[in-house]
Amino acid sequence: MTETITFRPYLIPQISKFIFHTCLLIVLLYFWSTRGSWIYLAIAFILFITTIGYGQNLLFLQHVVIGEDKTITIRYWFGKGYTEKISKALYEILTKDAKIRSYRFNIQGNLYQVSPFVYKDGDDLVSILASFTKNKNINVKPTVFGLK
């Protein structure tokens, strides 16, 4: 690798999911307030947690930077980035149907999960990280909840 590459997430799917779940949450809260049924509130609570998850992704907007010196940097819109050598930080791979779905890194004592399909040019990210998986004995686990 001869250059530093930055992988940015797709924003349109994240924004559309956040808006959809927020609208659905508002409708459920409206039904709860007008009809008084607690089932609407229970469903709204579950949807609220999901909406927070999508909002967190938009707020932090995790970027992955692969350096020419074989380092990975996880950074957000604000705050400092966390950098470590890929071969040292990569500790686990999640698979589904024999395809790699996600990589887990331990960078400076913080745990991060990077799912390449979320990023623009995610196939390039997979090809870069694939060379590091062959050289090291890494724990490979199947996904539990099934990523996209």
Q: How would you describe this structure to a colleague?
A:
With 148 residues, this protein is an alpha+beta fold. The protein is 43% helix and 28% strand. The chain contains 4 helices and 8 strands; from the N terminus they run βααβββαβββαβ. It has helices at residues 12-35, 38-60, 86-89, 122-134; strands spanning 5-7, 63-66, 71-75, 82-85, 90-96, 99-107, 110-114, 139-142. The strands form 2 sheets. It has a 4-stranded antiparallel beta sheet with strand order 1-2-3-4. Helix 1 (12-35) runs antiparallel to helix 2 (38-60). The protein starts with a strand and ends in a 6-residue tail after the last strand. 11% of the residues are buried.
Radius of gyration: 19 Å
Count the DSSP helices. Answer: 4
Strand order of the largest sheet: 1-2-3-4
Strand tally is: 8
Regions with little confidence, pLDDT below 50 for 5+ residues: none
Average of the residue pLDDT scores: 86
Beta-strand content bin: 25-35%
Shape: elongated
Distance, first to last CA: 29 Å
Biggest sheet record: 4 strands, antiparallel
Question: What's the multimeric state?
Answer: single chain
String of helices and strands: EHHEEEHEEEHE
